[in-house]
Amino acid sequence: MQPGGKKAGPITMEMVARIAGVSQVSVSRALNHPEKVAPATLARINEAIRATGFVPNLVAGALASRRSGIIAALIPSITNITYSSFLRPFIEAMRQAGYQIILAETGFDEQEEAAMVQNLLSRQPEGILLTGVNHSPDCRRMLLGAGLPVVEVWDTSESPIDISVGFSHVETGRAMARFAWQRGYRQAGVLTAPDQRALRRKDAFCSEFIALGGAAPVEHVCEGSASIKNGREGLAGLMRNGFTSGVIQCSSDLFAHGVLIEAQARSLKVPGDVAVIGFGDMDFAAHTVPKLTTVRVDRDVLGHTAADALLKRIGGHRLTDSTIDVGFKVIGRQSA
Amino acid sequence: MQPGGKKAGPITMEMVARIAGVSQVSVSRALNHPEKVAPATLARINEAIRATGFVPNLVAGALASRRSGIIAALIPSITNITYSSFLRPFIEAMRQAGYQIILAETGFDEQEEAAMVQNLLSRQPEGILLTGVNHSPDCRRMLLGAGLPVVEVWDTSESPIDISVGFSHVETGRAMARFAWQRGYRQAGVLTAPDQRALRRKDAFCSEFIALGGAAPVEHVCEGSASIKNGREGLAGLMRNGFTSGVIQCSSDLFAHGVLIEAQARSLKVPGDVAVIGFGDMDFAAHTVPKLTTVRVDRDVLGHTAADALLKRIGGHRLTDSTIDVGFKVIGRQSA
DNA sequence: ATGAAAGCGCTAACAT
DNA sequence: ATGTTAGCGCTTTCAT
């Protein structure tokens, strides 16, 4: 330790203040409410900040102000574009509003999710983003008890914890069935991942297709997540299960793409022998051969809407509706 | 306010302590060092915690202990599987070590990155993950000044800020050129995204291919990011630039997949008319028709290695090497 | 416009 | 094994 030197450690507002010849509070003001500081003083303070390379300690700031500036986001899978694509605009919108995001991956596991929520709550987040509307009772209770803004994304709910932003998976299933029916398909198969939302779309597709007079669709539920590989295996699986021709409703464009490739490998014509409807309108959907018929959900809008709703709630506003439906659209291209 | 009631607000350790009939510190101990608390006391405290639903305030804890339990991670793009796929194991490893992640997306912009680093530093992270080794001078200076553990991922560097974990992009380029040469290709094209690492792979491929005696490759640099769409357009672009046949080195498997599709649309045989080498060995690479020849980098290993290295540095260890090369492997399949 | 005083809820010594 | 005393670095009154 140097003679006469203060003890080591980070640069604090106190040090900056001493250099600028003001009190510590003035430095705080200069940073948070510059309009309340005389221009000359402000200039001296800013110069001292620059000279020292001072970086404010937001941990201390958060404790004192009781505002963490943190939003917690939980998504099932980071690598799954379905979720990362609405997370991106969400994070960006939050960043612009001055918030930072703590991210956690649940792996589609409600117990993990509940444990993570508890962990995240200890960071005093000002809001929470959850994926889907199915959460463990513990999780719901904790969140309700914490009384902070929560937005559930990617689904609509009759009884959201706080607010939900998404669309009706049941309606997409019905819409796909009607679309297939109108295009003349009377036989169908369904190829789906085992997650709750995909299964709801599948069930809705099947009942609507049958209600319209179609044959009961052949089903194949893949283990694991949506991928081209599983899509290829899925077509094989469907054919083993008795699917011979008709339209296949896939729970993801990735599955649909896999079906396209497997059909090509088997010299099956698409949509002549096998027709395909995907889900998601992912970036490649308009660029396969043939182009994919699919369901579009605007994930940019989803992320932004979720962020806006959360920010309003954080700001103390009540929302007119606790559920926001961003809708969806069946995009008819060439594969069905 | 109720008569006799304390003022409202969050449940604190103080309240839990009162209920359990102990002092506030004992509650802190019960949570952080349970072995230092008598079993009977511990039981009473835990019961009080359960009864109140107490969630510790880590913001206060972080301030007092000067350990935030936070790691900051900056990646170029959240939706790009190249980056999310090493982020996932990284986050998981960090979670198991008790850390939470604050995530920010730089959009491949060094200025944005520097600004975000400054913002993130105010959260007092115990470590930082950066993507790549190209950072603005400001950014380097801040990080060096902060003196905290930094791991740069996805590249190796001769002069890392702290530690780097990745592989040599130049070597992958050379390896692809040698591979192509050995398979008998004497004409080549390159299709690349405009990011720094992809360009280095491209340059290395070209110079090695020429050094071996091959013709100077036809080049096409895509605007925007790697995608099937851009891959299709890329093949068209290469042919406009004079590419007629040979092998195409792509900076991503997504480009390579796009080339496959475009070749199919143009009735070109792969690898007969056009051969393709991708990059990344993404999950679909072994399931296209034909299967993709590509370069594999184990992103799971990358994420875990980065986490381990960072944890060691946080623990105060010096590492034997400041740069860890996780290597790569050319995977010869059918497309080249 | 500026400063002094009082905490935010917790952990880290140092007692006992 | 448990409690007491001091802060951590900042924001928020409340004075001046």
Question: How does this model look, in words?
Answer:
- The first copy, chain A, is α/β, with parallel strands linked by helices and 336 residues long.
- Chain A has three domains: 13-56, lambda repressor-like DNA-binding domains (434 Repressor (Amino-terminal Domain)), CATH 1.10.260.40; 70-168 and 299-327, Rossmann fold (3-Layer(aba) Sandwich); 169-296, Response regulator (Rossmann fold), CATH 3.40.50.
- The first copy, chain A, has helices spanning 13-20, 24-32, 39-52, 58-65, 81-96, 110-121, 137-146, 169-182, 196-211, 228-240, 253-265, 299-314, and strands at 70-75, 100-105, 127-131, 150-153, 163-166, 188-192, 218-221, 246-250, 274-277, 294-296, 323-325, 329-331.
- In chain A, the strands form three sheets. In chain A, strands 2-1-3-4-5-11 form a six-stranded parallel β-sheet, sandwiched between helices. In chain A, strands 7-6-8-9 form a four-stranded parallel β-sheet, sandwiched between helices.
- In chain A, strand 6 (188-192), helix 9 and strand 7 (218-221) form a beta-alpha-beta unit.
- Chain A starts with 12 loop residues before the first helix and ends in a 5-residue tail after the last strand.
- Strand 2 (100-105) of chain A pairs antiparallel with strand 2 (100-105) of chain B.
- Chain A binds a DNA duplex (16 and 16 nucleotides) through residues 10, 12-14, 22-26, 28-29, 32, 36-38, 41, 56-66.
Q: How many alpha or pi helices of chain A?
A: 12
Low confidence ranges of chain A: 1-6
Order of helices and strands of chain A: HHHHEHEHEHEEHEHEHEHEEHEE
Provide the domain count of chain A. 3
The percent range for helix content of chain A is 40-55%
Kindly report the spatial arrangement of strands forming the biggest sheet of chain A: 2-1-3-4-5-11
